[in-house]
Inverse folding.
């Protein structure tokens, strides 16, 4: 009996640890989604249901970083081949994410594939997938500029057998959804040891989860996100990302996504040129630039090295505008999705414009 109670208590602690980070993320993203929905003007809503091909064409050819108003003056695409966008809402259907991104003047976007709070979700039917693919094409987005975000429930390095099994099933399910949508990238948080197992053991579990998912799917690249070293989460140190990649059998199907807030909180002082250089050197020497597949653009509420995962609007946090200018001007970040996951208080549209103005 005592053992059972103890086991239950351990399980609760595991879950608590795993969910601390996830809940924080959920809060940010849900409130942002609510914010976006809540502040959509009637005019913008009308734009989401285009009637004529001309309207679509106007918005397709529009440069990112500009108002979605049909009356704006066209200008040349932003220099440097940067593809900046934001996390979008799938409320009302997956294709709505494309419309949301278009309204924001985004050239790339992030999205969940299903509700991020439930393990199970109804199957992705053919009509939903086809509508998404058609909308993506109609609005001129390349599938490679969409960065689906994995469920926050995932812990592919969990010491808990049940959590690990469910995470592995969900990983396969989500990769299959990406393939059905024709999307080549899938971004997820590596996981946590929950303080119960050695980092190396968790690294091995994550790599095996990825290998298993690769065996059960065809082409999607699993993009592992760097984390902030908060609690027992893995991936705050670039060495941990390297160690996971080393154990992945199909190297052509694994990559990394660098989250600027997480990198800053993990110790890279992106507010300074020296900190930026250090991160770039480590990215090159520890992980390898060929694995860089995406960026999450977030300023940080917490100080450098604080290990806290607290996103802030661009230029309003500890990284600051100059930190993002360095990023926006660096060629390594050309032609990959750069996605905002910042809190409400500033519109994504304005943040995208601000980032393009830094080039
Ligand atoms: Zn992120
Ligand atoms: Zn975060």
């Amino acid at each position: 009996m005592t053992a059972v109670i103890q086991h239950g208590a351990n399980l609760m602690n595991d879950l608590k640890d795993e969910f601390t980070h996830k809940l924080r993320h959920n809060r940010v993203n849900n409130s942002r989604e609510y914010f976006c929905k809540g502040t959509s003007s009637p005019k913008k809503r009308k734009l989401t249901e285009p009637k004529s091909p001309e309207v679509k064409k106007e918005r397709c050819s529009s440069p990112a970083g500009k108002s979605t108003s049909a009356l704006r003056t066209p200008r040349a695409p932003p220099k440097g081949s940067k593809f900046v966008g934001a996390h979008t809402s799938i409320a009302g259907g997956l294709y709505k994410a494309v419309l949301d991104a278009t309204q924001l003047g985004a050239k790339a976007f992030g999205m969940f594939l299903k509700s991020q709070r439930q393990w199970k979700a109804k199957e992705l039917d053919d009509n939903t997938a086809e509508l998404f693919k058609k909308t993506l094409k109609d609005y001129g987005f390349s599938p490679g500029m969409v960065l689906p975000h994995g469920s926050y429930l995932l812990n592919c390095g969990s010491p808990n057998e049940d959590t690990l099994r469910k995470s592995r099933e969900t990983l396969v399910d989500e990769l299959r959804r990406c393939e059905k949508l024709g999307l080549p990238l899938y971004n997820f948080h590596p996981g946590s040891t929950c303080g119960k197992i050695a980092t190396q053991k968790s690294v091995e579990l994550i790599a095996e989860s990825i290998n298993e998912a690769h065996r059960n799917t065809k082409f999607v690249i699993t993009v592992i996100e760097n984390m902030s070293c908060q609690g027992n989460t893995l991936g705050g140190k670039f060495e941990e990302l390297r160690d996971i990649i080393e154990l992945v059998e199909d190297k052509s199907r694994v990559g990394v996504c660098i989250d600027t807030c997480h990198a800053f909180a993990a110790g890279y002082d992106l507010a300074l040129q020296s900190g930026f250089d250090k991160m770039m050197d480590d990215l090159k020497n520890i992980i390898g630039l060929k694995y860089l597949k995406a960026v999450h653009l977030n300023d940080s509420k917490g100080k450098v090295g604080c290990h806290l995962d607290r996103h802030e609007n661009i230029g309003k946090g500890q990284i600051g505008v100059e930190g993002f200018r360095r990023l926006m001007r660096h060629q390594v970040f050309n032609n990959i999705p750069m996605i905002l996951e910042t809190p409400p208080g500033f519109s994504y549209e304005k943040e995208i414009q601000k980032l393009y103005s830094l080039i």
Observations:
- Confidence is low (pLDDT under 50) at residues 1-78.
- The pocket of zinc ion (ligand 1) is lined by residues 225, 259, 296, 341 (CB under 6 Å).
- The chain is about 45% helix and 10% strand.
- The first strand starts at residue 83 and ends at 87.
